[in-house]
Amino acid sequence: MANKGEMPAYDLSLFDGSEAPRMASAEKQARKKRRNGKILSISKGSSAKTHRRQRNPVLIGGTILVIALVGLMVMSVLQKYARINELNDTLTSLQVEYQQLVDQEGNYRVTIDTYVTDAEVRRFAEEELGMVAASKTQKKYISLSVEDKGTVYASDQTFGVFDFMYEAFGGVE
Prior knowledge:
The chain is an all-alpha fold. It has a domain at 12-52. It contains five helices and no strands. It has helices at residues 20-36, 44-50, 57-115, 118-127, 161-169.
């Protein structure tokens, strides 16, 4: 026993050999009670072996296969999305370029209309390109059906006053 003000002393009689067999038997009885109540004590080494669950290889393989397929589908969708974005960017740039060309064409038309007259165009066609303006007698309009074919040749023959009047009034019937 411990005195007041002093550190308590331990009872060393508990550690004597005479008490040890009695404790061992008490521990054995406690173990027996546990076994009767279906409670077993297992050492740490054997508990790790018995509690380890058996894995189903088909389930593991199937899971890996499903994850791989989902990953491939996601990658495919992302690749298609990237291609769509790329084509949208190309479309936008082509639309901008088209609008610039339309504006440029409008500017050229204004320039041509202000600087070039019809007389200058005719002079250039006759002198530089060797073209000749068609006369009224050289122009003939023929209505063709789908099955018919026709060829009209311009003649070098000059027409008289009566031919000119005939062409002007559309012919007399």
